[in-house]
Write a structure and sequence with these properties.
The chain is an alpha+beta fold. The protein contains two helices and three strands. It has helices spanning about 25-35, 40-55; strands at about 10, 15-25, 60-70. Strands 1-2-3 form a three-stranded mixed beta sheet. The longest helix is centred in the C-terminal third of the chain and has 17 residues, at about 40-55. The radius of gyration is 13 Å and the shape is globular.
């Protein structure tokens, strides 16, 4: 069983957008980690949401992973 929720789901320029938002004390460091590891759990989380939506709609959504400071 997989559980969770999509932080953002909306239409933009005719495409479905899946948005996953993460906060970090050091957002620059988290961004470096995400760029270095496409299999990072946060990336996999966003891709899982996108995959489920694609199975449902037959159309691949745009995926956006946003990182914000928690300070």
């Amino acid at each position: 069983v997989v559980s969770g929720r999509i932080d953002g789901l909306y239409e933009e320029d005719g495409q479905t957008v899946v948005e996953e938002i993460k906060t970090a004390f050091d957002p620059g460091e988290l961004k470096r980690k995400l760029r270095a590891d496409p299999w990072h759990p946060y990336c996999l989380q966003a891709m899982t949401y996108a995959y489920a939506l694609e199975l449902e709609s037959g159309k691949a959504p745009v995926v956006r992973l946003r990182v914000h400071s928690s300070r």
